[in-house]
Structures are given as C-alpha cells and as structure tokens.
Design a protein that fits this description.
Keywords: Chaperone, Copper, Disulfide bond, Metal-binding, Mitochondrion. The chain is mainly α. Helix content is 51%, strand content 0%.
Length: 80
C-alpha cells in the first residue's frame, strides 16, 4: 500500500468536536463514585451465602441473603 502514513493524515478527516464531547462525558462519569472492582468479584461472602441458599432452598426463601448481597454491592459503589 503506497498511501500516506496515518501520522500525516489531514486533521480535516477527524470529526470536529468529537474529542471535546468525549472529554466532557468522561469528566461526568469520573465525578461519580466508580466501583473499584468488577461486580462479579465484589462481596464474595454475601454472594456465596446467597448462591448457596438459592441452590438449597430456592430464591423465594432467600430474600434475606439476596438483599444483604445487594446492600453490600451498593456499599461498593454499584447501582443495583
């Protein structure tokens, strides 16, 4: 391919204002308390209790553990 290198590409090919919009969106996201972990790795204790209860007794009988896990996730910064 004998085209121009990407470094020398004309700035006119870029979408105007795209970087500005991305920057402001990232600032608004960053201002919220962002969870430090993935949701699957947060609150392993309550997750295990919840899962074990559901397997043994069914979801309807485990609302106490389900809610405890949700509260733990909320404390970690997740919106559940």
């Amino acid at each position: 391919m004998g085209g121009m290198p990407l470094q020398n590409a004309s700035p006119a090919l870029e979408l105007p204002g795209l970087q500005q919009n991305q920057g402001s969106a990232m600032k608004s996201i960053g201002s919220e308390s962002k969870p430090k972990k993935k949701i699957c790795c947060a609150c392993p204790d309550t997750k295990n209790l919840r899962d074990e209860c559901i397997v043994q007794h069914g979801e309807e009988a485990c609302t106490k553990w389900i809610e405890a896990h949700r509260q733990c996730l909320r404390a970690e910064g997740f919106n559940v």
